[in-house]
Amino acid sequence: MLFARTCLALLAAGLLPGCGLVHFGRREKMPATGGDAALVAAYANLSTEHKILRQELLLARREGDALRLALERAGGGAPALESAARLAEAQRDLTELRSRLARLEAERASKPPEAPRATAAAPADPQPLREENARLRADLERARSENSALAEKLQKAETRHAEARLEIDSLNVDLLAQKQARSRAEQATEALRAQLDTVLARGSSSPALTLSAARESTATSTAILHYPSSPRTGSGAGPTPPAEPRPRTHVVQPGDTLEKIATRYYGSPERWQAIERANQAQLANGLRVGLELTLP
User: Fold this and answer.
1) 248 and which of 43, 157, 199, 295 could share a cystine (Cβ 3.0–4.6 Å)?
2) What's this model's pTM, rounded to 2 decimal places?
C-alpha cells in the first residue's frame, strides 16, 4: 500500500509542469500589451493638444485685448502706435506658436512615445482630459470669432477716419478759396471808396458839379472797376479816368477743368485755350485746387 502511494506521487511529479519550488521576491514586470500602448499614445496626444490649446487661447486673448485697445483709441482719432505695436506682437506670437505646433506634430508622428515607460503616467480613463480639451477648443473658437469681429470694426473705424481726413482737407481748400475771395472783395471795396472820396472832393471844389453828375461819375467808376473797357477819347472836360482795373480771376475748385471755367465765364468751352495762354506760368505743374487763374 505504501509502495503504491509512493509510485503515484512520483508519477504525478513527473507529469505536472514546473520545478515544484516556491519562489519569493519582486515579480518581474510584464511588457505592455497592445491596449496599454494605445492608451499611452492617446494620453500623450491629449496632453500635447492640451498644452497647445492653452497657449493658443492665451495668445488669442492677448490679440483680442490689443484689438480692443486699438478700437478704443480709434474712436478719438488715429490708432495709437502703442496699440498697433501690441496687436502686431500678439499676431507674431500666434504665428510662432502655430509654427511650433506644426513642428511638434511632425516630431510626434515620426517618433511615437515609448509605451512601457509612459504607462505609469497615463491615467486609466483619459475622458476628463478629452472634455477639458473640448472646452479649450470651444473657448479658442469663441475668442477667434470675437477677434474677427473686432478686426472688422477696427478696419471700418480706420476707413471712417480716412474719409473724415479727406473731407477736412476739402473743407480747408474751400476755406482758403473763400479767404482769397474775401481779400479780393475787400480790395475792390477800398478802391471804390477811394474813387468815391475823389469824386466827392472834386464836387466840393467845383460848384458847377451837381448831385446827379456825382452819381453818374460814381456809377461810371464802379463799372470801370468791375469790367475793363477802353479809355475814352476826346478832349471833353470830364473827370480824370480811373486807373486801369485789375483783370478778373478765378480760384480753381475741386472738379474744375479749363473747359468748365471757360463755359462758366464765356459761355463756351472753346475759350479754354485763351485761359491756358494767359496762365502758362501758373499751369506749368497742372491745374491744382486753390490755384488763382487770370481770365482774359
Assistant:
1) 295
2) 0.40
